[in-house]
Design a protein that fits this description.
The complex is a heterodimer. Chain A is of the alpha/beta class. Chain A is built from 11 helices and 9 strands. The longest helix of chain A is centred in the middle third of the chain and has 12 residues. The chains are: A alpha/beta, B mainly beta.
């Protein structure tokens, strides 16, 4: 696995627009950005409406995921290129999700929508229709997903990487600062977690830092390469970004994303919390 | 959730007795800048949040009392502003030269 297997540049995407077998997918929580203009030919996935179970707090089950991808015209053999806003947080979450269900060829567009916009590249308002497919997903690969009991058991033994901002880690604020701060869960972090904010892995234009810079960053922050890793944030999308860095860019093995994250952990009765 | 709500506009429904709101607009060449990426950095210059300005060039953050830096990145250039926020409404303008 190397960077070229999992990332494409904005130049590459622009050169390959309309190429059969490549499906561009914009993933956002707020899809008004897509509706106001998207990369030509890109279909959209709404993080909340499309990718979350409408009733339980969970991602879609296998059959619902198959139905979603079939309806968007994504086939098992397609090369999927994901991009989105928020520095690719939700696109990275979708990448992790596509891997959970075993899609073989999926990549992120480095820098996401921000890089594309800052470069002044063209956006289209044309509706995108793709013929439906018969997508078949694999059984979920739980080797890349952590659940709450595993997080509690990992205290003091695995790398617990809290990728939220320092003020969320310390409990000063409860959510990223573009959101109102009234939340029900307790503030703080999982004991023994190290705070390596996702943003340290990215440049200001949203692209990932170089492999050398990334390896140095985690080494300096106390990340122990010999131990398994669980990454978490608030709802599991920023930690997908870090999961992508550790597993897909740096090739670390046994890295899981805890998508329950602080919204779940900070609401559990009786678990230890540090501030 | 983590997607930023619509930027700017009225403060209906926001409790200014508990929330520390930092809001304002981004300007360049005498006009507001729509679609600028605005980051909120903490006192150690670490990223805390990022939003995209509205068609009127507005941004809004929900922070905590203390020192903050607001940095704007747009196709036309960059600008930044530091401020000390208190509970309630804190307004600022970021100019891109």
């Amino acid at each position: 696995m190397s960077r070229n297997d999992v990332l494409v540049t904005v130049d590459w995407v622009q050169e390959h627009l309309g190429r059969p077998g490549i499906v561009l997918v914009e993933v956002d929580e707020d899809t008004t950005a897509y509706d106001g203009g998207h990369i030509e030919g890109a279909v959209k996935l709404d993080w909340k409406k499309d990718l979350q179970d409408p009733l339980r707090r969970d991602y879609l089950d296998k059959s619902a995921f198959e139905e979603l991808l079939s309806s968007r015209g994504i086939g098992n053999d397609d090369s999927v290129v994901l991009y989105g806003g928020n520095n690719n947080w939700f696109a990275a979450y979708a990448y992790w999700y596509f891997k959970i269900y075993g899609h073989s060829d999926v990549k992120l567009m480095d820098g996401g929508r921000k890089k594309w916009e800052l470069d002044g590249r063209p956006l289209s308002k044309d509706a995108v229709e793709r013929p439906a497919t018969q997508y078949v997903a694999s059984e979920p690969d739980l080797s890349i997903r952590a659940f709450r009991d595993e997080v509690v058991a990992a205290i003091g033994s695995k790398n617990l990487v809290d990728v939220r901002s320092p003020d969320e880690f310390s409990g000063k604020i409860l959510a990223p600062a573009h959101l109102p701060q009234e939340q029900s869960q307790r503030a703080g972090h999982v004991p023994t977690a190290i705070n390596i904010p996702w943003s340290k892995a990215a440049n200001e234009d949203g692209t990932f830092k170089s492999d050398e810079e990334l390896a140095k960053l985690y080494a300096e922050q106390g990340y122990d390469e010999s131990r398994p890793t669980i990454a978490y944030c608030r709802i599991g999308e920023r930690s997908s970004h870090t999961w992508f860095v550790l597993r897909e860019l740096l090739g670390r093995t046994d890295v899981k994303n805890y998508d329950g994250s602080w919204v779940e952990y900070g609401s559990l009765v009786g678990v230890p919390i540090e501030k | 959730m983590c997607g930023a709500p619509k930027q700017g506009g009225v403060l209906d429904g926001i409790d200014l007795s508990t929330q520390t709101v930092i809001q304002g607009s981004v300007w360049h060449d005498g006009a507001p800048v729509a679609g600028a990426y605005v980051r909120l950095l903490d006192s150690t210059d670490e990223f805390t949040a990022e939003v995209v300005t509205s068609p009127e060039g507005e941004f809004r953050f929900f922070a905590a009392p203390g020192p903050w830096k607001v940095r704007a990145l747009a196709a036309v250039g960059k600008g930044e502003r530091t401020l000390s926020a208190e509970v309630g409404l804190n307004e600022t303008t970021v100019a891109i030269d």
